[in-house]
Fold:
Amino acid sequence: MPVRAKICGLSTGPTLAAAVRHGASHVGFVFFARSPRNVAPDQAAALAVQVPDGVARVGVFVDPEEGFLASAIAAGQLGVVQLHGEETPERAAAIRARYGVEVWKAVPVKRRVDLAAASAYAGAVDRILYDAKTPAAADLPGGMGLRFDWRLLEGFAHPLPWALSGGLDAANAAEAVGISGARLLDVSSGVESAPGVKDVDKIAGFLQSIAQL
Structure:
């Protein structure tokens, strides 16, 4: 199975076009006001129409209010809702049933014991996203360029399909896949020139690096 990639935190037409042109399987829009990558539903709507069939639109949310979630799903024509907050399995399952979308749940990881949280979401979500655990005082639950020890995933019996996130870039993508066995990588800050500023050359470089795996 080829390694696929999601380019997350897109907010401009040129960077979205670069992600699509170079082979991203998923493109991500962040709906979280405190993030430098935040987009409003109307911005997402303008971007969504540029995404061709075969590339999945993913919306990233942190404990979203229901009305806002509904408007963002509709505006962004989302096929996937990615949850990065304290959402319970029950909330995740309800979102999947109500909106007919795939649901991914981020599980923050620092130690191997943290992986156990994934099992609670079996039957409630479609995919787990293993991401680096951020410091307790951090304003953001992800997108900070942090990575965890990928060796923690070695030999782990995954309860669900999964993806790897946190501190990825073109230089370490091959290492990440080789150690963890990931077949879907989720990158955001690793393809930026500054927080929230995507770089078309870095997007191209990342996608070209995984195309060789």
Summary: The chain has one domain: 4-211. Residues 200-211 form the longest helix (12 residues).
